[in-house]
Amino acid sequence: MHKKTFASDNYSGVHQAIMDALSQANAGHAPSYGADEFTAAAIKKFKEYFGNDTEIFLVYNGTGANVLGLQTLTQSFHSILCAELAHINVDECAAPEKFLGCKLIPIPAPDGKLTPETIEAKIQRLDDQHHPQVKVISISQSTEYGTVYTIAELKAISAVAKKYNLYFHMDGSRISNAAVSLNAPFAAFTKEAGVDVLSFGGTKNGMMFGEAVIIFNPAVSQNFKYIRKQGMQLHSKMRFIGAQFAALLSNDLWKRNAEHANGMARLLAQELSKIPQIKVTQSVEANGVFAIFPERIIPKLQDEHFFYVWTERTAEARLMCSFDTTEGEVKKFAEKTRELLASA
What we know:
About 40% of the residues lie in helices and about 15% in strands. It has about 350 residues and is α/β, with parallel strands linked by helices. The longest helix has 21 residues, at about 255-275.
């Protein structure tokens, strides 16, 4: 068994309740391609959170969810506005641009958040046949910097989208962490805030695999089942995604997992803030901590508690907490940091 790290919430294992659900789904045979009881149960759970007029499509992974969700909103001559550090811009190997043919327009966002002002500054040359036409505003909730958009901020972005007849897409790979941070229902900061299409993440919150594309705008949902098939995201044994989501969305498991991960991130930030040589650089609003470490201790610290250096130029590290991070692991990391600083 590999030791736990602060590298990514993708490094974590699978919650035992999810493993149990997978075992139950593994008993006997079931119809394929989503025609099974487990997928039906998951969709029913999603509709309890988002409403019966919402369309839910289960997919295999986050890149697929984002690319296919955006495909429902764009044509190849369109452009998509996103934060400079957005996952679709820097961590999906240009998959959106390859498969959509669209141009991504990155916007500087020092705290990970777009604002109405920064968005409007990039809306240019509308109806100019020589220029890619902006069609979508895409944000991450929570952001790549671990910050969380407030409901008011989301509604302000939605107002810009409506003003210019744009679609509003949300990458919610860590949406549960955002919901806990906001202490708000999922629908309050997605559907009710004007989001058209949402990627709902499960893998980073205790699942083995699986995400969902949730469509709130009925005008764009009609052909998604064909888009999913062409996009190679129609899982044949879909019951194994459905069973996981049905378990995650039952008995507040999603919430308990996210509350724990967020709480461990807050504790980690508190512990690091007690060390004068460490500077926490971003507000800790979800399950990530960003901090600048003295470069000389990073390799030795990584040997025992692996994490990624987010910005090499400034030695800013990203430390991610998961549903299975423990208080002891957090304190051990802080103690090792102090030990290395004292001996350096």
